Structure to design on (139 residues):
């Protein structure tokens, strides 16, 4: 097995160590390996391929980190073919939330979510995906 060196904030390293201890992992490498496998597998759901999808992506970031908001604006414009709607809101005194409603194919939605997740200084990125042809099951 190869060895990969990664950089991360001390606080995240401590959280990983605590998580490993509390959940019976042998160490942080095992936690990171599982997290990477899960992340990579998220968009490998064959049931979503070749279908029209809608997605909601929620991004939380610190109000003081103005570069995140600017990057979200650029992503919205760069992916305007799939961004159906975008909403910005203040959460408490310190945070901002950016919400995107997307419509498109899995590959395009995956690329968008990946770029949002790769944006430095985001605190949380959450999303859900639903095939548009399944909407009728709710009526």
């Amino acid at each position: 097995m190869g060895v990969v060196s990664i950089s991360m904030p001390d606080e995240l390293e401590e959280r990983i160590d605590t998580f490993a201890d509390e959940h019976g992992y042998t160490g942080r490498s095992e936690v990171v390996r599982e997290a990477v496998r899960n992340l990579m597998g998220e968009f490998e759901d064959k049931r979503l391929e070749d279908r029209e999808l809608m997605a909601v992506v929620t991004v939380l970031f610190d109000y003081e980190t103005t570069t995140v908001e600017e990057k979200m604006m650029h992503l919205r414009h760069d992916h305007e073919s799939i961004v159906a709607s975008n909403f910005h809101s203040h959460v408490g005194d310190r945070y901002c939330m950016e919400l995107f409603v997307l419509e498109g194919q899995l590959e395009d939605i995956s690329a968008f979510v990946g770029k949002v997740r790769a944006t430095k200084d985001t605190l949380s990125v959450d999303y859900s995906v639903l095939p548009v042809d399944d909407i009728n099951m709710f009526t």
In short: The two ends are 51 Å apart (CA to CA). Residues 10-41 form one domain. The chain has four helices and four strands.
